[in-house]
Amino acid sequence: MAETANAIQPIIDIQNVSVGYDETDVLSNIQLALNPGSFTFITGKSGAGKTTLLSMLYLIKKPSKGILRVFGQNVNFSNRDTLALMRQRIGVVFQDFRLLEHLTVYDNIALPLRVCGMNEKEIYQRVVELLHWVELHKSIYKPCSTLSGGEKQRVAIARAVINKPDILYADEPTGSVDMEIAVKLMRLFVELNKVGTTVVIATHNEQLTSSFNFQRIELKDGTANLYPALQHI
Predict the structure, then answer these.
(1) How confident is the model over 70-109, as pLDDT tens digits?
(2) Secondary structure (3-state) at 66
(3) What is residue 136's DSSP assignment?
(4) What pLDDT digit, counting tens, does each position of 141-183 carry?
(5) What is the Cα 123 distance to its own chain's centre?
(6) Considering only CA atoms, which of 138, 15, 128 is closest in space to residue 67?
(7) d(C-alpha 84, C-alpha 58), whole Å
(8) What was the pLDDT predicted at 182?
(9) Distance separating alpha carbons of residues 210 and 155, to the nearest angstrom
(10) CA angle at 181 for the pair 176 and 185, rounded to the nearest 5°
(11) CB under 8 Å to 144, separation ≥6 — which residues?
């Protein structure tokens, strides 16, 4: 009898999880599993819990009930040092950018590599390569305070991916830009996904989710349902 191939282990495994604030659950009894290398949208109306779910997934908030496993580890029983090591494998694009406005584009993107102790020569090579990728190489030494919203968003994305994360989370990454720029940003995420990064994007932009055919988690009335990408024949 031939041996069967090992099943793919989820990179994110959510089992009967509830999460919320001040003893009030925003999301209840969530059960989801995302595979390595997947691309997933999180959708739902404003207040449905997209940001709450993301804050749990990028390990800022622990579940109030249930089990969350990331990289196969049970987050509920992980100590501070273990969580810190896990976060090094995760990139996050925040809705409000969270850039250091007084620093240059270069210094903002280089920051995660400097924290890790990488030498400046390698940092420079990585940052310049990534700036060409996001079409900001001509703005390398501009202070972030002088950039447009779309440019700041691309800096935030570059900073999130400079460490080549295993998982990338993005909270409304196209919310402050027009549709043309939004599509360009989405293509950056798609290219990153093609090289193996698991991508999870929270968005309310229905035009965007319909333009890019990926699986989708819909949040509604405190619940979450996972819908597969449409299969084209």
Answers:
(1) 999 999 999 999 999 999 899 999 888 889 999 999 999 9
(2) strand
(3) -
(4) 999 999 988 889 889 989 998 988 999 999 988 776 777 777 8
(5) 22
(6) 15
(7) 11
(8) 79
(9) 26
(10) 95
(11) 99, 100, 101, 102, 103, 104, 105, 108, 152, 155
- As a whole number of Å, the CA-based R_g of the chain is 18
DSSP line for 11-62: SEEEEEEEEEETTEEEEEEEEEEE-TT-EEEEE-STTSSHHHHHHHHTTSS-
Q: Residue for token digits 């090289």?
A: 195
- Burial classification of residue 61, based on how many CB atoms lie within 10 Å of its CB (0-12 exposed, 13-18 middle, 19 or more buried): middle
Q: Residues in the chain, how many?
A: 233
Q: What is the DSSP letter of 71?
A: T
Fill in the amino acid letter for 85. L
Q: Are 123 and 114 in contact (CB under 8 A)?
A: yes
- For residues 74 and 66, what is the distance between their CA atoms, to the nearest angstrom? 10
Q: Where are the domains of the chain?
A: 99-164
| Matching residue, tokens 């995302």 | 34
Q: Are 26 and 56 in contact (CB under 8 A)?
A: no
Contact 53, 108 (CB under 8 A): no
Q: Residue 216 gets which letter from DSSP? A: E
Tell whether the model's pLDDT for residue 1 goes beyond 60. no
